[in-house]
Amino acid sequence: MRIAVTYENGQIFQHFGHTETMKFYDIEDGKVVSSEVVDTNGSGHGALAGFLADHGVKALICGGIGGGARNALADAGITLYPGASGSADDAVAALLAGHLDYDPDTVCAHHHGEDHDCGSQGEGHSCGSHGEGHHECGSHGCGSGSKKGGITVVTSQNFDAEVKNHKGLAVLDFWADWCGPCRMLAPIMEELSHEMTDVHFCKVNVDEELSIAMAFKVASIPTLAFFKDGKFVDQSIGYQPKEAVREIIERLK
Is 179 a catalytic residue? Predict the structure, then answer.
């Protein structure tokens, strides 16, 4: 997986649309294996989303960013972590560790001409745990015990029915809104739930269902717990690439 950071002199550049360089970080097994600084070749606000997508970027860490650029990144399937500052390398390390300090509501505070969109997020913007009373309804989905994209939301009320009494292999993803690596793992689990339909994919929000997390001694997220015929058989801690998760599942079937 590849993470990009708006970059200048080792720091996170604070204006997305005017960044002249990006630093790319290639991630394997939850660790940075390589990085490079790349010139954006003068790409503007909207074009930068295509530039990042063409380079295989799946997540972006930046400072200020306008609503139009946000929409373009969302359309390109790139997860956004705006409102970050400081060292680019430290920010990526923090994201992988699950404690990046960022603000999902950050907008551009500058005005550089009529074509620049520094407005509000508009309808459809989802706020994470940074805002009181707001719950992120992104790729993990919402609702108790509901199905979305092949993944079942597990709570203490339906744990027995969905996991303990399930015949066959079940995968339980322990996650939280504020966890960056959890959000990176989410689309992988979504894809696998459609590709491996003989496996029961579930997820549990540790903030909302602390008792389940404590029962399985989950101390770090994301954690994937694997159950066969209702019995716990294995677990995987931290972000894992798609093929690594697939290999574990195939081994446990």
Answer: yes
